């Protein structure tokens, strides 16, 4: 063997052995933390050095640990214990967080580790027996507080919490209840609602999303599909039969809800008015377009099982948006959408009472005490209608991407706004106050 080749080969073996040793040391340190149920290695994203799937023991009720516990999934992607941590508070299940391809945009931006937390009662973070009284904003925030406390014993640099949509809400609730857990927060497209059927979103859709011409085309499309309902219903019914969809209302009523949901979905996901069928389009073309933008599986009982806990939260504390059938009276069968969440998404007999206390707490926190929070919103996203107000608190920065959707991120911002966001984050990263 050539001596130079042998030296290179031995050096490579040494590096590999060293990396394996470091990875094992990290895994052993985490296993030694209190309440760690299991630590499993997974293939890491190339940006990181190793990745671990960790199950953490959490109380069902943090004020009453005697009620029992469950295992919460945490995915740690390590870059170095001497690096900051991007702390992701997912609002739903976390399968994508355990995918090798997943890399939060803040990690390469801030040269940071990634700690991804699945929300309680979603995905694999579900107790053996579910009692919905334990699914609260307070308990979820306490989950995140506990995880921060655990991992800060290993990662002592700055922590940056972030989340998207409901995950962004989760960031705000956690930050309001435990303001000193993290140094910086970047909630994306995070709403803050104050009722189960907010009216602000409908007003936004009819007056603020896109341009006046674009809004008119969206409404006209809704009217055209309602006028064609008699012709579209056989196609709609057949699709539901083929997909084995089951609803808590008649298919004809679900069709009307799809028409109402269509406008929200259109603007939320940044659809183009150029894709809206012309009036001369066939019934089949209109139907294909409707189920592409707003498929009826949103209202299907089986399809909704994975997100069912969200609607429980919406009815209890988070709130949601309402529908407005009034612009379509005379052409729409559906006349009243009041209590539609309970009617369409809850089993018969379910009863939850909405309490806005925690949303009001966040509102007060953002106006007075919040600092180093960068809020990112899309200018045409209906959720921006319920964007949290900072009430002149200059320690919180809001950036709204013109025409942006629910997919708005720092990486999608126009150059000027992107530079501003990065400049703010870099400044906060070196600031001690």
What does this structure look like?
- It is a single chain.
- The chain has 2 domains: 22-194 and 357-430, 3-Layer(aba) Sandwich (Rossmann fold), CATH 3.40.50.1820; 200-345, no CATH class.
- With 433 residues, it is of the alpha/beta class.
- The chain is 40% helix and 14% strand.
Properties at a glance:
alpha/beta; Rossmann fold; 2 domains; 13 helices; 9 strands; 14% strand
Task: Reconstruct the topology from this structure.
Blueprint: H1 3-31, E1 36-42, E2 50-59, E3 69-78, E4 85-89, H2 106-110, E5 113-117, H3 137-151, E6 159-164, H4 166-177, E7 184-188, H5 200-207, H6 212-227, H7 229-242, H8 251-268, H9 283-293, H10 308-318, H11 340-345, H12 357-368, E8 373-378, E9 396-401, H13 415-430
Parallel strand pairs: 4-5, 4-6, 6-7, 7-8, 8-9
Antiparallel strand pairs: 1-2, 2-3, 3-5
Q: What is the element string, with H for helices and E for strands?
A: HEEEEHEHEHEHHHHHHHHEEH
Kindly state the mean pLDDT as a whole number?
95
Helix content: 25-40%
Work out the count of structural domains: 2
Using only C-alpha atoms, the radius of gyration works out to 24 Å
CATH fold category name of the largest domain: Rossmann fold
| Count of strand segments | 9
Strand content is 5-15%
Any idea what the CATH architecture of the largest domain is? Answer: 3-Layer(aba) Sandwich
* Quaternary organisation of the protein chains: single chain
N-to-C span: 59 Å
Strand order of the largest sheet: 1-2-3-5-4-6-7-8-9
CATH class of the largest domain: Alpha Beta
Tally of helical segments: 13
Outline:
By secondary structure, the protein is an alpha/beta fold.
């Amino acid at each position: 063997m050539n001596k130079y080749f042998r030296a290179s080969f031995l050096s490579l073996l040494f590096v590999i052995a060293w990396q394996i040793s470091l990875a094992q040391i990290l895994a052993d340190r985490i296993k030694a933390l209190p309440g760690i149920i299991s630590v499993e290695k997974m293939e890491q994203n190339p940006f990181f050095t190793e990745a671990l799937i960790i199950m953490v023991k959490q109380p069902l009720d943090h004020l009453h640990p005697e009620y029992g516990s469950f295992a919460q999934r945490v995915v740690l992607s390590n870059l170095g214990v001497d690096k900051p941590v991007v702390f992701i508070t997912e609002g739903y299940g976390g399968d994508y967080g355990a995918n090798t391809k997943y890399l939060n945009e803040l990690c390469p931006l801030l040269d940071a580790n990634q700690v991804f937390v699945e929300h309680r009662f979603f995905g694999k973070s579900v107790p053996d027996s579910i009692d919905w009284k334990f699914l609260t904003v307070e308990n979820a925030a306490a989950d995140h507080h506990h995880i921060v406390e655990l991992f800060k014993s290993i990662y002592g640099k700055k922590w940056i919490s972030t989340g998207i949509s409901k995950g962004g809400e989760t960031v705000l609730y956690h930050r309001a209840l435990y303001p000193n857990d993290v140094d910086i927060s970047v909630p994306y497209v995070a709403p803050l609602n104050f009722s189960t059927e907010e009216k602000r979103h409908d007003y936004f859709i009819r007056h603020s999303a896109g341009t006046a011409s674009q809004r008119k085309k969206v409404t006209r499309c809704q009217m055209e599909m309602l006028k064609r309902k008699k012709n579209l219903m056989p196609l709609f019914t057949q699709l539901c039969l083929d997909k084995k969809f089951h609803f808590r209302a008649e298919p004809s009523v679900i069709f009307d809800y799809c028409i109402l949901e269509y406008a929200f979905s259109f603007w939320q996901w940044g659809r183009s008015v150029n894709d809206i069928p012309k009036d001369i389009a066939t019934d089949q073309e209109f139907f294909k377009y409707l189920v592409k933008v707003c498929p009826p599986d949103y209202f299907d009982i089986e399809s909704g099982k994975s997100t069912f806990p969200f609607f429980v939260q919406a009815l209890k504390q988070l709130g949601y948006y309402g529908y407005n059938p009034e612009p379509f009276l005379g052409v729409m069968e559906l006349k009243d959408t009041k209590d539609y969440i309970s009617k369409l998404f809850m089993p018969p007999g379910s009863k939850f009472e909405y309490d806005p206390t925690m949303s009001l707490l966040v509102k007060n926190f953002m106006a007075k005490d919040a600092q180093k929070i960068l809020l990112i919103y899309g200018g045409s996203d209906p959720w921006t209608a319920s964007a949290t107000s900072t009430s002149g608190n200059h320690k919180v920065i809001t950036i709204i991407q013109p025409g942006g959707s629910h997919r708005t991120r720092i990486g999608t911002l126009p150059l000027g706004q992107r530079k501003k966001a990065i400049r703010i984050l870099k400044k906060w990263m070196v600031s001690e106050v």
